[in-house]
Amino acid sequence: MADANGEAGLSRFERFALALGRKTQENDRYKRFQFWFLSQLTRSWVRQVIGPRTYADNVEWLLDYQPNGGVMFAANHRSFFDQWINMLCLYEGGATWPWRLYFPVRSNFFYERPSGLLVNYLVGAGAMYPPIFRDSKKAALTKDAVDRIIEFLDMPGTCVGVHPEGTRNKGPDPYELLPAQPGIGQIVLRARPTVIPFFINGVGNGFLSAVAGSQKKNARRDDPIIVVYGEPVDYSEFTQAKPRATLYKKTSDLIREKIIALIPREQEIRERCARGEIRDDDPHWVYTRWGWRHRLQPRLRQGRGLRRPRHR
What we know:
By secondary structure, the protein is α/β, with parallel strands linked by helices.
């Protein structure tokens, strides 16, 4: 863990924000409260904002999944809401196993400004933790954050949301991903979690525009949010040797490739939406008046037509 020297370069507010994060996010009783907060309160309004036009593909097996250890959800990074939509898909479907949530985040807003700290706790009960410090003078704290994430992933029920690209992709083409950064590979090879890739497309960064987009009559045809889940990544080929920088990068590259491999499926679904081939009562629309969990349940019980993951 970070020593006093690692925190010496922090402002008074940064030290307060970091101490609050450690106090709340590393306490199981609080994490149980956070699970209730996110799965009930936050979900109740997020589903109204973006749920009606969100389509989740290959999500069935995740709803009743029972992992033995921590899980890492790895996705492309187009907006601030990518991981929140992921959790909406799971919670709206009735999943209860992801209850200890961590979304590592850059420190420059959520841990340096009172407004950022307020947003973190009002929207996510502090789930955007631990902070990643980009300042080289705070490298000890960044290393500490990585060590903590690895410890979290050793506990069942832990879900860590990450982006191999390392930063939000602001390019014009949503199907072009930035190069993968080695940090994710380092965490994976040291913690050995289950890594589940998903590709998401159709959501921007503007909250008001997201609300307006979901209220459009033909939103599911013209501007759907599509989430495609993949099977757990098999990275066993990189676990045979001692972890080192080159293997970290190769592991991150592999995860990035698995995310990219989901793009054709997303494009297929998007084209079918535009042609009107996916009906409004399709159970994979995350939020409908028909209740998607209810409609999927018979298939979950019978195991028909579902793609099951190949476990490591």
